[in-house]
Design goal:
Rossmann fold, 34% helix, 21 strands, binds cytidine-5'-monophosphate, 411 residues, alpha/beta, 8-stranded mixed sheet, 5-stranded parallel sheet
Length: 411
């Protein structure tokens, strides 16, 4: 697998080469990548969302103003929840829109909203390709950092037309993607042979069969860590509470709801070389969850009595047998972040704490960026504000370094 856990957002625009994009999806998935597809209106004249979705294993996206999609995912998340945006085929029209910064449909809006690298595979009639307008747009896109693959010379779909304008073949596009992602991703193999357990997301604590207590954790940071560890070659088990994120490919994912179920899944996942506890576990659960829906009565609202949940991080960190060599906790604080993190390190018995400021102003909860401090027995490191993926990659690099020294305790 050359693209393990990589997330590709593939935008298909309207040209006859669009049929080859279905093969591209298949080739990418064979290599371990997950592929999300957006089709422009014109693309749907050549391939259907149903065909693209069936091959991608996930519904294809087509409309900017689709109420369901916007509620479920949203165009900003589509633009950001990926490692690379690939436009194949890229028509002359879509290239012109990109160069001009237009945003009047889902594809162009996502291309303007993304902060990820973009690769385009142009495909058009040779006269359109050699037109000065297209050359101007291409020069602008290249100046903006957009990478290109192709087009190739050869026969066109139109009888008797030949020249440069054929879309690069799917395997050439795959090779360009592999080169690009190798340059931006986690160094491959730094965790090969190591097993990593990660918890992520919130927990839901039942009040009765239809109601629960929960928190606002999105699972983005925990999932990003699991993905970065898998990309670095680790055997990853991700224990996830209820989240809206897709399961990252290339790892074992165990879905749980409650803190107690999460603890059981974590214990079943041991031994592991390192464990990262990024889940926002509910501190309390309802002492006696109803087995039937609690009815509204004239006697007034019910009183919920709460009991403490097991502390999964502390339980694992204090184990006598099968304790991972490196146990990493998170500390989400709204004030005195480092001071509280230091206290937590001692109280929970873990090796490192990744401390982050989740005050409302920081926008971390549910957001895409994170500013963290890494607190170890040796001291405190302040990391720059980075995307959650970058935090994940930096943490994975540190974990790989720490695990290199097997016999001594990692501090
Ligand atoms: O004590 P606090 O909830 O702030 O600690 C946060 C850290 O402890 C996180 O790493 C979280 O995943 C972990 N934790 C846990 N089980 C709990 C509570 C927190 O594993 N019941």
């Amino acid at each position: 697998m050359t693209l393990p856990s990589k997330r590709i957002l593939l935008i298909i625009s309207g040209g006859i080469a669009a049929y080859k994009s279905l093969d591209l999806i298949r080739r990418l998935r064979e290599r371990g990548a997950s592929v999300r597809v957006i089709l422009t209106k014109a693309a749907q004249q050549f391939v259907t969302p149903l065909a693209a979705g069936a091959i991608a294993g996930e519904r294809a996206f087509t409309d900017l103003f689709d109420a369901v999609t916007e509620f479920d995912i949203g165009h900003i998340r589509l633009a950001r929840d990926c490692d690379l945006v690939v436009v194949a085929p890229a028509t002359a029209d879509l290239m012109a829109k990109m160069a001009g910064g237009h945003a009047d449909d889902l594809a162009s809006t996502v291309l303007l909203a993304t902060d990820r690298p973009i690769l385009i595979a142009p495909a058009m009639n040779p006269v359109m390709w050699s037109h000065r307008a297209t050359a101007r747009n291409l020069a602008q896109l290249q100046a903006d950092g957009v990478k290109t693959v192709g087009p190739n010379a050869g026969e066109m779909a139109e009888a008797g037309e030949a020249g440069t304008g054929r879309m690069a073949e799917p395997l050439e596009i795959v090779a360009a993607i592999e080169r690009l992602l190798a340059a931006t991703g986690t160094p491959r193999g730094i965790l090969s042979g190591q097993s990593i357990l990660v918890t992520s997301g919130p927990t839901h604590e039942a009040i009765d069969p239809v109601r629960y207590l929960a928190n606002r954790s999105s699972g983005k940071q925990g999932h990003a860590i699991a993905r970065a560890a898998a990309e670095a070659g680790a055997a990853v088990t991700l224990v996830s509470g209820p989240v809206k994120l897709p399961d990252p490919p290339g790892m074992k994912v165990i879905h749980v709801e409650s803190a107690r179920a999460m603890l059981a899944a974590v214990e079943a996942g041991l031994p592991a070389d390192a464990a990262v506890f990024a889940a926002a576990v509910a501190d309390w659960r309802v002492a006696e969850a109803g087995t039937q829906k609690t009815k509204k009565t004239t006697a007034g609202p019910p009183t919920l009595s709460l009991v403490e949940n097991p502390d999964i991080l502390a339980t694992v960190a204090k184990r006598k047998t099968d304790r991972p060599r490196l146990v990493v906790g998170f500390a989400a604080e709204t004030e005195r972040v480092v001071e509280y993190a230091r206290a937590k390190l001692a109280r929970k018995g873990c090796d490192w704490i990744v401390a982050n400021d989740v005050s409302k102003e920081s926008g971390v909860m549910g957001g895409d960026r994170n500013t963290v401090h890494l607190v170890t027995a040796r001291g405190v490191e302040a990391w720059p504000s980075q995307s959650k993926e970058e935090v994940a990659r930096a943490l994975v690099a540190r974990i790989a370094e720490a695990l290199k020294v097997p016999a001594t305790p990692v501090k």
